[in-house]
Design brief:
The structure holds 2 protein chains of 2 kinds.
Chain A lengths: L2 H5 L9 E12 L4 E12 L3 E5 L6 H8 L7 E6 L2 E2 L7 E4 L11 H5 L1 H7 L1 H6 L1 H10 L15 H13 L5 E5 L7 H18 L3 E5 L2 H7 L2 E6 L4 E7 L14 H17 L3
Parallel strand pairs in A: 3-8, 3-9, 6-7, 7-8
Antiparallel strand pairs in A: 1-2, 1-4, 4-5, 9-10
Helix pairs in contact in A: 9-10
Chain B lengths: L22 H4 L2 H21 L11 H16 L4 H32 L1 H16 L6 H8 L3 H23 L5 H9 L4 H39 L4 H10 L3 H29 L13
The chains are: A alpha/beta, B mainly alpha.
Chain lengths: 269, 285
C-alpha cells in the first residue's frame, strides 16, 4: 500500500469534519529546510487521531501549524469552516509539561485562558464552570491548592481542565503524559479517553509511543522525515471503550507491529 | 524500640554498620556561629594584649565594646550622631528607590525588546565593567557636596544588578509557557505582566539583594569623597584622628543598617515570591 492510497482512506467515524488540512507544507525560510510536505488530513467530530514518527519528522511543526502558532507555507488549514490564521479560542492545547503557573491556585490556572481573552470579570464568572471540570477530571477538592503541592498526574489533570474551559472544538495534545511514570501514564490515558468520550471531543495526539497511539486512536498517522510527510493512515478498529486489557490481544499486537514496521523502514535512517 | 526478631540473628564477629552523622551536623547552627565568633574575639584579644599589633592600629575588643556602647547610647538618646545616621539612611533609601525605578525600567526594556537587547545592553555591559566608584568625583562636581551626589552614586552602583536580574529573569519562562500564552491569544502586555514578570521575580530579587549591598557601598563612598554630614563623614573624621575604636563601632552600626536593608528585601521576597521557599539570610541564589 503506498502513501497516497492510504491518505484517501476515509477517516473513521462519520461525524462532520471539524478540522481539515489540505496539502499543507512548511519550508522554513531561514534554512530552506522542508519540514512538512503535502500533509492532508481530516479530523471528524468526536474522533481521536494520533500522529507518530521519529524526532525530526515534522510532528511539532504540524502541531504548531494546527495550533495557529506558525503559518504554513502552502496548503489550507481550516477549523470549523474558518481558515486558521492565528491563535483561536476553539483550539485547546496541552503539553508534555503541565505548564501551570506556581503563583496561581489550580483554579486560577484553569480560568487563565478566560482571563486572557475576556478579562478578570469573565474569569470570575467562569469559576463555577471550572469547578465542574475539576469534578470531571477527578480533582475535586484541589481547586485552591497551589501547583507546587500537586503530583505530576494531578498537574496534568489541572491542565486538562484549563484546556477544556474555553470549550474548544479541537484538542491538540503534545505528548501530554510522557513526563509521567508508566503506571500513571496508562491510567491517565484511560482517563483521557473517558473525558473525550463524555464530551464528544475531537482530539489530535502527538506521541512517541506506538501502544499509546493505538489504544487511544481511531486513526494513527505515521509520519516520516526528510521531508516530513504522512506515510500512512492506519485505521484502528478496536472496539470502544478501549481498556488496558486490549494491549495483550493479538489484534492490538498486530496493529502495533504494523505501525512499527512502517516506522522502521526509513524513519531512523 | 521494636520487638521484632531479626530473621538472621547476629552472630559474634558480625560487623554492625551504622550510619555516621558528622559532628557538625549534630551541632545547632547558632552554636557553630557563636564558636567562630568566640575564636575571632580571642585571637583579636591575643593580638592586641601580646603587643603584636599597636593599640593605635587595632584597639582591644574591650575598648571597642566600650565605644560601641557609647555610640549606641549617643544614637538612642538623640545625640549628635543620630542626624548623621539619618542622613545616611536617607541617602540609602533614596538611592535604592532610584536604582529600583531605573534598574527595573531598563531591565524590562533590555529583557523584553529586541532593540533594548541589541542596542542598549552592550552599553550597559560596558558601563558595568567600569569601576563605578571612579564616577564619584563626577557626581560630586555635578550635584555638589549635599545628599544628591551620594544618592546618585549609590543608585548608580545598585542599578546594574537590578537591570541584569530583571533582564535575565524575563528570559526565565520556558518555551511551553510562551507557547501556551500564544495559543491563548495573549497580547504582549498580558504575556509580560501575567507570565514573564512573575517568572522573573526570583531573579529580580537576586538583583535587588546585590543592589542593596551596592547602595550602602555607594552612599558611604560618596560621603568619604564628597564630605557632607553623614555617617561616612563621622568615620572619616574618627579615622583621621586615629580613633580606631570609634571607626570600628561606627562600621558595626553601619553594617547593621546594611543588614536591615538586606533582610527587608529578603522578607519582601518571601512574601511576594511565596511559591519558592528561601531562607532570609541564605546566600544570593
Amino acid at each position: 500500500m503506498t502513501g497516497s492510497v492510504a491518505l484517501e482512506m476515509r477517516p473513521p467515524l462519520t461525524g462532520r469534519p471539524v478540522y481539515e488540512l489540505a496539502h499543507v507544507g512548511k519550508t522554513y525560510a531561514r534554512n530552506q529546510v522542508t519540514a512538512l510536505q503535502d500533509v492532508s488530513l481530516v479530523l471528524n467530530k468526536g474522533s481521536f487521531s494520533a500522529v507518530i514518527g521519529s524526532s525530526g519528522c515534522g510532528k511539532s511543526t504540524l502541531l504548531k501549524i494546527m495550533a495557529g502558532l506558525i503559518p504554513p507555507s502552502t496548503g489550507r488549514v481550516v477549523l470549523q469552516g474558518e481558515p486558521v490564521i492565528g491563535a483561536r479560542r476553539d483550539i485547546g492545547m496541552m503539553f508534555q509539561q503541565a505548564t501551570l503557573f506556581p503563583w496561581r491556585t489550580a483554579l486560577e490556572n484553569v480560568v487563565l485562558p478566560i482571563e486572557i481573552r475576556d478579562g478578570r470579570a469573565a474569569a470570575m464568572a467562569a469559576r463555577e464552570r471550572a469547578r465542574e471540570l475539576f469534578e470531571v477530571v477527578g480533582l475535586k477538592g484541589f481547586e485552591d491548592v497551589y501547583p507546587g503541592e500537586l503530583s505530576g498526574g494531578m498537574a496534568q489533570r489541572t491542565s486538562i481542565c484549563r484546556m477544556l474551559i474555553t470549550e474548544p472544538a479541537v484538542l491538540l495534545l503534545d505528548e501530554p503524559f510522557s513526563a509521567l511514570d508508566e503506571l500513571s501514564r496508562d491510567f491517565m490515558n484511560m482517563e483521557l479517553q473517558r473525558i473525550c468520550t463524555e464530551r464528544d471531543a475531537t482530539a489530535f495526539l502527538v506521541t512517541h509511543s506506538i501502544p499509546e497511539a493505538v489504544i487511544l486512536s481511531d486513526v494513527v498517522y505515521v509520519m516520516k522525515p526528510r521531508p516530513g510527510r504522512i506515510a500512512e493512515a492506519v485505521t484502528i478498529d478496536l472496539p470502544r471503550p478501549r481498556t488496558l486489557d486490549m494491549i495483550t490481544t493479538p489484534k492490538f499486537g498486530g496493529l502495533v507491529d504494523r505501525i512499527r514496521g512502517l516506522l522502521d523502514r526509513e524513519a531512523f535512517l | 524500640m521494636s520487638t521484632q526478631q531479626p530473621v538472621v540473628a547476629p552472630t559474634e564477629g558480625d560487623t554492625v554498620w551504622t550510619e555516621q552523622i558528622s559532628f557538625i551536623d549534630r551541632v545547632p547552627r547558632s552554636l557553630s556561629m557563636l564558636f567562630v565568633f568566640a575564636v575571632f574575639v580571642i585571637l583579636w584579644q591575643l593580638a592586641t594584649v601580646s603587643g603584636l599589633v599597636s593599640p593605635i592600629i587595632l584597639p582591644t575588643p574591650g575598648e571597642t565594646l566600650q565605644d560601641l556602647i557609647f555610640v549606641g547610647h549617643n544614637l538612642i538618646t538623640g545625640g549628635y550622631m543620630l542626624p548623621a545616621l539619618w542622613i545616611t539612611i536617607k541617602e540609602v533609601i533614596y538611592g535604592f528607590a532610584l536604582a529600583i525605578a531605573i534598574g527595573f525600567s531598563l531591565g524590562v526594556l533590555v529583557g523584553e525588546t529586541g532593540f533594548g537587547e541589541r542596542a542598549i545592553m552592550p552599553y550597559l555591559v560596558a558601563i558595568d565593567t567600569m569601576p563605578k566608584v571612579a564616577f564619584a568625583p563626577l557626581f560630586i562636581a555635578w550635584l555638589g557636596f549635599g545628599i544628591a551626589s551620594k544618592v546618585a552614586l549609590a543608585a548608580f552602583i545598585a542599578t546594574f544588578p537590578i537591570v541584569v536580574g530583571t533582564a535575565a529573569g524575563l528570559h526565565a519562562a520556558d518555551e511551553n509557557a510562551r507557547m501556551l500564552f500564544k495559543t491563548m491569544g495573549a497580547s504582549r502586555l498580558q504575556t509580560l505582566v501575567k507570565m514573564k514578570l512573575p517568572h522573573a521575580l526570583p531573579q529580580i530579587f537576586t538583583g535587588l539583594k546585590i543592589g542593596a549591598v551596592g547602595v550602602m557601598a555607594g552612599a558611604i563612598t560618596g560621603e568619604f569623597l564628597g564630605g557632607g554630614k553623614g555617617f561616612g563623614e563621622l568615620i572619616r573624621v574618627a579615622a583621621s584622628q586615629l580613633d580606631t575604636p570609634r571607626v570600628f563601632s561606627l562600621i558595626l552600626y553601619l553594617s547593621l543598617l546594611g543588614l536591615a536593608l538586606f533582610v527587608l528585601v529578603s522578607f519582601a521576597q518571601r512574601r511576594i515570591v511565596f511559591w519558592r521557599k528561601e531562607r532570609v539570610l541564605a546566600d544570593h541564589e
